[in-house]
Amino acid sequence: MPETPSTRRPRRVRRLVLSALVLLVVGTWLNNTALLAPEPGTGPGVLAHRGLGQTFDPRGVAADTCTAERMDPPEHGYLENTVAGMRAAFDAGADQVEFDVHRTADDRFAVFHDWEVDCRTEASGTTRDFTLEELRRLDIGHGYTADGGRTHPFRGEGRGLMPSLDEVLAEFPDRELLIHVKSEDPEEGVLLAERLARLPRERLARITVYGGDRPVAALREELPRVRSMSRQTLTDCLIAYEALGWTGHVPDSCAHTQLHIPEGYAPWLWGWPARFTERMASVDTRVVLVAGSGGFSEGFDTPAALERVPDDYAGLVWTNRVDRIAPLVAEGAGPGAAGGPGHGG
Asked: InterPro entries annotated for this entry (predicted)?
């Protein structure tokens, strides 16, 4: 049966639709594949979780678990969240050090991980029950044990080692710091913003704050020029980016923040890893790759774990063992895995 204009038209429409779909797929691939991305200027950087401190088995850890009571056998003499531990982390090669802060009874900030002091010290109560000077008199090495309480290798050695936020800022005036607000109190975000607002603009550029949605939102309102992140800001960014990132566009919600990306989710991000980190850097956002599903304190803590980091990843990797990992990164001996499936191409 000979073709007629009425039969040719649907065929032309189908060909045009098919051609458009092919161009869309090819264009999306070209826009997000690492094959055409510029070579990163450097490899990954290292984020030292709580500086250099004692490690523990994270399996089964809950929010109220006393991790000092399940310490691994000590390999060094540093305790987490101390000036000495942070200095050791930077000396080992850390690019950024994370530490925890709590508001004290006299409206200052103590650098300490736990909400309560019972686990690590000889005292009892919450950090807010004590003034800063009272907290500094406690022995933060009191509760550490690797053998079920038979021995306590740091007991008596941690008195006076709990620093204030002011001490940390003064000790590391030109270093990249990640401040973790441990509460959900928006007033704590306001108080922290007031403290940080006294710093020079160039110093603020090297500080990032993360924590609960409410204190981070309050801090962002008072001090928007400080890079900050919460679960809400992370979710807002990633949802918007998954919807629009295939075009290369970076949503406003992804600008001027820090993104902690679990390695299991990362390969599904458009342009992962090279294009993604390049796009985020263009809007003043840091990318941090965390191990596994991003669960409690998971980090790239062994050479084998570091092998899972893609070759062309140029963000930060989260580690609890900066003494092991930073030298490997500096030598270029760690990253080696492929980018994986998904959006990264």
From this structure: GP_PDE_dom, PLC-like_Pdiesterase_TIM-brl
